[in-house]
Write a structure and sequence with these properties.
homodimer; 227 residues; alpha+beta; Pnp Oxidase, Chain A; six-stranded antiparallel beta barrel
Chain lengths: 227, 227
């Protein structure tokens, strides 16, 4: 088992947060929210002895994180029994404007997952994951599009990471200034940022004008309506 | 020299883009724009033999990329003669909604810089870099705040990466569907995303109500007004 009974990931030597541990969490619910809101992850791995960091699309299904990107096929070729990775999803929530440069910061939520990613070879699993990836990016989209062919499934490289060693860091709230600095006539506070705000959809130039735009495109919003 | 005469980074075995090379660029101007617009980077390195990927704040000064984050001090302790890194800045510009799942994609701009990051020890350089980091996040801010003390400069860990091995990938434009799929009655196109949209500034609860909010906070916009 990789989680405690209370729904947290186990703290291991790899995931133990040493710097500012008060900002850390291992709670599955909070970590799931970060995975759900994020659109891309950054995947770190070692290639030819050197660290490499690549943005990829992802989806979480049950207790696995799946990644997919243009580099995946090249990665897979260099894999012998899996590829050791660190996958990080970061959401930037705001700028923290303090009275000194030293206390400037950012409000963010970031999750890191460590482990050995394995190629997905089963065609049924691939199909399920690709559907989840499309729906992760834009909910309801998979039911609206042409489904994958066997050749497309074979041509798609997916990596799966079992979520075992996972931790998150979260910063919220106003700046924390040195006590003496609160007397300074400097504006201080936070500037909230939204990180995936949809503009006006742009129809493909080859789309017939009669094609109706579905509501999940027209009303796209990354955050749930309640937030 | 690390650049060609035409203002591009040299293509090396490390930075040569093998997958979809048509999307790659080594042009300094385009790469500088990505560095300028981004707020955070992801830094990959190897710790205890395992890849690690951490979000950090950064600033570019001349031909160096500087990173700063809560992990930096721990990293620096494990460094002997520099730390090999890959630093990636990714800007997500939109969702590419194709007629098949296979051709779904994202529009993005991403730059990767490889090399050995060195700790910054000179206090004058630290001060200059920290000022640039504050102004990178919010232009004009450094002149408005209390300047760093010698103790703060000593307590700040910065890493510097000489920009030599750098490449970028950029995807723009509508989906590229299979020819037969263009006849399908599926809405297709792109959904532009803005990735750092400012909400209403929230004053620090301890800020006197009389403190005026400066225009660089009130009118914060990540992109230049022209775009």
């Amino acid at each position: 088992m990789t989680t405690d009974l209370d729904g947290s990931y186990k703290v291991t030597p790899v995931t133990k947060v040493r710097r500012l541990p008060a900002r850390s969490t291992y709670e599955k619910l909070q970590i799931d929210e970060i995975f759900e809101e994020g659109l891309t992850c950054h995947v770190a791995f070692v290639a030819n002895g050197r660290p490499c960091c690549i943005p990829m699309a992802y989806a979480k299904l049950e207790d696995k994180l799946y990644v997919h990107g243009s580099i995946a096929s090249r990665l897979l070729k260099s894999m012998k029994g899996g590829l050791e990775v660190c996958i990080t999803v970061t959401l930037l929530d705001g700028l923290v404007l303090a009275r000194s440069g030293f206390h400037h910061s950012m409000n963010y939520r970031s999750v890191m997952a460590f482990g050995t990613a394995e190629p997905v070879t089963d065609e049924g699993e691939k199909e399920r994951v690709l559907a989840a990836m499309v729906d992760h990016i834009i909910p309801g989209r998979n039911a609206q599009i042409r489904q994958p062919t066997p050749a497309e499934l074979r041509a798609t490289s997916l990596l799966a990471l079992q979520l075992e060693e996972v931790s998150a860091k979260v910063r919220t709230g106003p700046p924390k200034d040195d006590e003496a600095d609160y007397a300074l006539p400097v504006w201080a506070g936070t500037l909230p940022l939204s990180t995936a705000v949809a503009g006006s959809p742009e129809a493909d130039p080859r789309l017939p004008a009669s094609t109706e735009m579905p509501s999940n495109v027209r009303e796209y919003s990354r955050k749930p309506a309640a937030s």
